Amino acid sequence: MPLSFYASTFMIWRSAILLALSAATALLCHSSPSARGGDDVGVLTELPLVAGIYVGEAEPQSDMEKKLLPADTTQVKRTYRTPGRRVEERDVAHASLVIAGQDTRSIHRPEVCLPGQGWTITDSRVLPIELPTGQQLYVRDLSLERLDQRSTDRRVLRAHYIYWFVGKDVTTTSDAKRQWLSFSDSVFRQVNHRWAYPSVMAFVTQGMNPQQSGQRERNDTQTVGMLLDLVRTLGDQPPVAQDLVPPRELGVGCGLLLGLGFGQQAQAALQADVILGEI
Question: Which residue has the higher pLDDT, 274 or 34?
Answer without folding.
Answer: 34
